[in-house]
Amino acid sequence: MSSVYEINKGINKPIEFRGLYGQYIAWLAGGLVVLLLLFVALYLLGAGLLVTLPLVFALGSGLVFTVFRLSKRFGVHGLSKFFAKRGLPDYVKFRSRRTFTGLKGIQGNSERQAP
């Protein structure tokens, strides 16, 4: 009796699920968990099903649409790069050169002792 094993030929390739890559799968899963908790909270608070279900379905479809759009726009690592680039300052102000004048002495001269 023989066993059938699949060989994983996707080494060094990102995880993909129905067109979603890597981190977008986690974003979608986290969003769906939040929607489930929202549904439970609204149901326990006594909101009617005619209010709760359409609200959760509308938010869920918006979530799926947004995550797929982000995945298509930015790709595998593009969203992380986008947030990293947004976090960079436009310019840097220096009021003193002291920071830079001390760098050469510390790196280049090992005999010099730090104050």
Automatic annotation (TrEMBL):
<protein>
    <submittedName>
        <fullName>Uncharacterized protein DUF4133</fullName>
    </submittedName>
</protein>
<keyword id="KW-0472">Membrane</keyword>
<dbReference type="Pfam" id="PF13571">
    <property type="entry name" value="DUF4133"/>
</dbReference>
<keyword id="KW-0812">Transmembrane</keyword>
<feature type="transmembrane region" description="Helical">
    <location>
        <begin position="51"/>
        <end position="71"/>
    </location>
</feature>
<feature type="transmembrane region" description="Helical">
    <location>
        <begin position="21"/>
        <end position="45"/>
    </location>
</feature>
<keyword id="KW-1133">Transmembrane helix</keyword>
<dbReference type="InterPro" id="IPR025407">
    <property type="entry name" value="DUF4133"/>
</dbReference>
